[in-house]
Structure formats: structure tokens, C-alpha cells
Design brief:
mainly alpha, Arc Repressor Mutant, subunit A, Four Helix Bundle (Hemerythrin (Met), subunit A)
Length: 245
Amino acid sequence: MKTLLAKNFKAIQIESPVDKIISQIRQMIISGELKPGDRLPAERALSEMLQIGRSYVREAIHKLEFYGLLKTNPQSGTYVTGISIKVLDTLISDIISFNKDDFNSLLEARYYLELTTVKLAAENRTEKDLHEIKKAAMEFEQKVKTSGKAIEEDMMLHVKIAKASKNSFLESMVLALIPDLIQNIVENNVCGKNRSIKSIPQHSAVLDAIEDRNTKGAEKAMAEHLADLLAVSKNNMEAIKNISQ
């Protein structure tokens, strides 16, 4: 009897709330219920309609904006762009699979992406940015100490750092890449059960370097914070390589 190799098996993918929101919007556009130029309900209203947290709605909108399917005007709201249905189908598939096809490569990409954003944040941050980063770090610490997990707070901290970089492309990449990765890392204990606790002093080191405008120190602190993720990525890639040989 032939035994299947490990590479013949593929992990079962479970749709996240963000994927489901994206799929719903896709279907509404395809059906004509949403047309180019139509305005989406506000985040709060969408959250209530879908009976889901606003952070999931916000993340779905950010991803759809990043791929050009939605456009947000701060004064008037979020609108559907005039993209074709054929292109829409391709992009939606890309968005939903973007954070799942190669988890190890995405871990590595996150590592180098965040080293760049944190250096720019240390160089370009304003006092307002610093206040927002400190607030996010405090909320992360409080949530970890009360519940053990702080997925949304962790995501928000890294988004605030990216925003402080003053590079809109890098900020968009963080918004598209980081949320699903953080959720996967925490929920599946990718780096062990104590990662959230260990992250508290690591976040503080990153924050101190940003406050001091120490670009090299910020890069070093972020590298130390994400070192275990890079190690997991490289170890997993090596294991997959050995299986395929």
C-alpha cells in the first residue's frame, strides 16, 4: 500500500470573520446590490448589522481599500470603486488567500517590514504619534494581565508604529499583513504560551527607542521582539525543504 507523503496533505483552512465580511461585500457587488459609487454604512452600523466587532469590520475595509476595491473619504465615508467583476473575483481570491498560502514566508516578510517601519517611526514620529503608541502599549499590557490574550491591542500597537513612520505604503502593508498574522500567532501559540507576557518589556524597549528618536535602537529592539517569529519561520521552511527532498 502506498503511503502519502506529508507534502500531499494541505491544512484545512477556516474562514476568519474578516474573510467572511470580504466575501459578503464581494457577493453584494456581483449581485448589483452594491454598485460603483455606492456608499457603505459606517463602521459602527456595519458592526451592528453583521453582529461582529468593529475591529474586524475595520480590517476588512482596510484590506479592500489596499487592493483598490473601496475608497474612503474622511468627510463622506467609504465608497465602492468602479472595478470590473472579473478583476474583482481575482482580487478577492488574492485578499482571502494573502495571509494563508505561505505562513512561514509571511512571518519572514513581517520581520523585515517592521524593522523598516520602526526605524522610520523613530525618525519621523510626532508627539501625537508617541502618545498614541504609548496608549496602545498600555492597553496591550492591561489586557494581557487581565485576560492573557490581547490580539486586537497587539495589532493596534503595531499599526500605530507603522502610522508614525509617515510612509503610507508601509502603513498599508502593515494593515494588510499584520492582523491575520498576529491572530494566528496568538491563537495557535506559534511562539509558546508566554509570548504575550514576554512582549510587554519588549514593547517598552521599542517605545523607549522611538521616544528617543534612536533609529538603530528601535530596529534592534524590534528585531529582538520578533526574533522568535523569524526563528519559527526559518525552522519551518527548513523542515518543509527536508520533507520535499
